[in-house]
Write a structure and sequence with these properties.
With 108 residues, the protein is mainly alpha-helical. Helices cover 60% and strands 0% of the residues. The protein has one helix and no strands. The chain has one helix at residues 4-68.
Length: 108
């Protein structure tokens, strides 16, 4: 925004306008403003960290709820009275497209 030379010129003008009497008051108010600005920035960082912590806790809680929820496993349904057997002698029914093949066990 401003370069070093522009800031030096502005500082000289302020010293000439306000005089040596007002300079300590000006520096004091600038220091107070800087402290207030730092405090507000720190408060914003703490608030943001607290917000992120709460969001992380909600996500963790949701993940734990998902892990404890019951899971449905798809398998084969063998109708009673089916006499189909595999090479190992276990009975098995033909699979249809509606029946899942994951986690399936042949029944004996």
């Amino acid at each position: 925004m401003f370069g070093l030379s522009e800031l030096a010129i502005i500082l000289i003008v302020v010293i000439l306008v306000l005089g040596a009497k007002k300079l300590p008051d000006l520096a004091r108010s600038a220091g107070k403003s800087a402290r207030i600005l730092k405090a507000e920035a720190r408060a914003m960082k703490e608030e943001q960290a607290a917000h992120e912590q709460a969001a992380h806790e909600q996500t963790t809680h949701a993940d734990q709820a998902d892990r404890t929820a019951p899971r449905v496993l798809q398998g084969e349904i063998i109708p009673p009275g089916s006499s189909a057997t595999t090479d190992t002698g276990q009975s098995a029914a033909p699979r249809t497209s509606a029946q899942g093949t994951e986690h399936s066990r042949p029944q004996t």
